[in-house]
Amino acid sequence: MADSVPVRCPTCRRENAFTPPTFPCACGAPLTLPVLRGGVPVEILHRTWQASWVEVRCEVCGRQDEWPAPESGCACGTVVRVPVVPAPVPPPPNFPSFGPPAPRHAPAPAPAPDPASTSASASASETPRPARRPAFRPVTIRTARDCVTAAEQYLKWLGYADVARTQERTASGVDLRGTGVVAQVDPTTRATQLREIECVWLNGLNASAIAVFFSLAGYARDARSRADDLHIPLFVMDLTGTPQPVNDPADELIKYGAAGR
Prior knowledge:
Helix content: 10-25%
Shape: globular
Largest sheet: 6 strands, mixed
Strand order of the largest sheet: 10-11-12-13-14-15
Region (Disordered): 95-136
Protein name: Restriction endonuclease type IV Mrr domain-containing protein
Number of helices: 5
Order of helices and strands: EEEEEEEEEHHEEEHEHEEH
Strand content: 15-25%
């Protein structure tokens, strides 16, 4: 999980801890927005589409894409946009020279495989590998139902192809079920409490499945700590519809997907 950085509110001058969001790159690697340390946060007074996105380069595959600009809220009610490290400018294309063609040579024969390296490769193939998947297509959140839809699509993107919402919300609070996974979605504006984390964990235990939690307003401190102990992936939903990982189990789920569980 990304390290938190201090962000000073320009209104009340309070310093708040901010954890940069992590998104899944098209190559499958988790991409954490590189917050500019020492940068000056800008209060959001009027939202525009252009200002709500930043361009960031993936350190794994080199792909340069636009992602939702990181925002931080203060207890005084101020919301600021946190600056990120500017994306590098791509170098100009290299045009071919018009000199004489280089001489062609026969390709060198491939070396014989080393038995030791072959054995090492076989053992390495048994460990989980980062999942490769296309970029996630978010579902804009406007209603509580949209939260459940976004979580459902995200779990399918992670590899749980048959996940679907339950017919009705039961006392257990489980909104989504699929082969190997149960998930609860909290679309309320209050922080998710400890009891709800333990509830979804028990449901995952009974179903011999991984338990995952999605929350719109974040998590209470004891709920977050308990989820870490139980190794439950926690995600926070933003209004763009892209779940953001909150703890290490969530980062691992993004990296390996359903195949790594």
